[in-house]
Amino acid sequence: MSEIQIENVSFGYEDGMVLENVSMEIKKGDFVGIIGSNGTGKSTLIKLMLGLLPLKTGKIVINDHNIGYVPQVGLAVKADFPATVQEVVMLNLYQEIGLFKRPGKKHIELVDKALETVGMLDKADKQIGKLSGGQQQRVMIAKALVASPEVLILDEPAAAIDSENEQQLYHLLQRLNVDKKLTIIMVTHSIENVEQSMNKIYVIKNKLVTRRK
Ligand SMILES: Nc1ncnc2c1ncn2[C@@H]1O[C@H](COP(=O)(O)OP(=O)(O)OP(=O)(O)O)[C@@H](O)[C@H]1O
After folding, report:
1. Cα(70)–Cα(143) distance, rounded to whole angstroms?
2. Which among 78, 138, 150 has a CA at the least distance from the CA of 114?
3. What interface predicted TM-score (ipTM) does this complex get?
4. What's the CA gap between 49 and 58, in Å, rounded?
5. Angle, CA 151 vertex, CA 92 and CA 4 arms, to 5°
6. Which residue, by CA, sits nearest to atom 9 of ligand 1?
7. pTM (2 decimals)?
8. Phi/psi of residue 84, each to 5°?
9. What are the structural domains, with CATH classification, of the chain?
């Protein structure tokens, strides 16, 4: 079954076209890599899929509307940022909880489960800013997972972490894909250490998207 179907999508900003005639098909259970150099349009493509940019030409059909998004992290969270790991993950349940209400036992259990999945349950009460870049990245994945998405989209998840943590992150994603049947779309400029886990790889170059695997 198709999760996301992209048909003949073209998109540009004021200064010109970024993507031309892109077609892609993402099925349930796929682990998809989207690779390309800086500025080729990877984030633009993701934002189109998430409906964060207005589509002008072509068609995008999304089957499951519950998509978890882990945005690109620029700089790590400031050390004195006043929120714990548990509170950060809880933010993604606010719709369910209600804005001015307190989280109930059920919500705390969901958060703990998501933190356990990414191996961060023992850090639940720590200040988010006191964690390493790799640990913060895991918390951001837990934040996406807590809302039980069918599809997880990650934008350059390894950008701010060292190679050891990168390997651990890829193991985690592979586990989520294989064990939890989560559809994963990962945008990156290098797939060197994760290529074997992916069943589909698309390359963006010169505004075109071609399938390499
Ligand atoms: N909001 C915007 N307005 C105008 N141009 C933009 C905007 N966002 C991105 N661009 C341009 O569109 C092109 C693609 O940008 P995009 O961020 O999608 O690339 P990317 O492949 O994700 O890059 P990176 O690897 O550096 O994150 C770039 O030339 C960029 O300058």
Report:
1. 8
2. 138
3. 0.97
4. 12
5. 130
6. 44
7. 0.93
8. -85, 165
9. 1-66+151-213 (3.40.50.300), 74-149 (no CATH)
In this structure, the residue with its CA closest to atom 1 of ligand 1 is 13
Pairwise CA distance, residues 95 & 41, whole Å: 31
What residue ranges line ligand 1, CB within 6 angstroms? 13, 15, 18, 36, 38-44, 189
Q: Which two tokens stand for residue 100?
A: 């001015």
Q: Is 192 helix (H, G, I), strand (E, B) or coil?
A: coil
Which run of H or of E encompasses 1?
A: none
Amino acid identity, position 179 = D
Question: Tokens representing 30?
Answer: 């796929």
Q: What's the 137 CA to ligand 1 centre distance in angstroms?
A: 22
List the chain residues with pLDDT less than 70: 74-77
Structure confidence at residue 190 (pLDDT)? 82
Atom 3, ligand 1: residue with shortest CA distance: 13
Task: Write the CB contacts of 104 (distance below 8 Å, at least 6 apart in sequence).
Answer: 97
DSSP code string of 99-164: TTSPP-HHHHHHHHHHHHHTT-GGGTTSBGGGS-HHHHHHHHHHHHHTT--SEEEEESTTTTS-HH
Residue type present at position 55? L
